[in-house]
Amino acid sequence: MSDEEKTNEAEAAEDAQTAVEEPTAETDESTGDDIPEFEQLNPNPPKSGGDLDLARFGGVHVTLTAELGRTQLTIEELIGLAEGSVVELNRAISAPVEIVAQGVPMGNGEVVVIDDQFAIRIKQIYST
């Protein structure tokens, strides 16, 4: 092998090693950490809900809550509660109760009794 071929081969090996060792990410000089670079992507526009098949979610259990009312007490008042105590709520008896699914208000209704159990007759379902 001639000296020129050896020189070319050595240069090619050095170039290959340099290419491998070059960082592909910027370095944050304040911390010395490598900051990876990512390709800029555009988010996909949301698809209309008309194409969504909701039937596949039919077996999922959801907690439905009917909120009768609320009140605020001091710690002293709370400690003083006993059997037979009456706590007044912030809602009139004729006011509709809030219906909440998994923490999200979904409508309102009125309290009814069916076979010795409370129930809610739905009066309004919120649009969104």
Automatic annotation (TrEMBL):
InterPro entries: FliN-like_C, FliN/MopA/SpaO, FliN_T3SS_HrcQb, SpoA-like_sf. Keywords: Cell membrane, Cell projection, Chemotaxis, Cilium, Flagellar rotation, Flagellum, Membrane. It is found in: Cell membrane. It comes from the Bacteria. Residues 58-125 form the Flagellar motor switch protein FliN-like C-terminal domain. Residues 23-37 have a biased composition (Acidic residues). Residues 1-52 are annotated as: Disordered. It is a peripheral membrane protein. Belongs to the FliN/MopA/SpaO family. This is Flagellar motor switch protein FliN. It comes from Roseiconus lacunae.
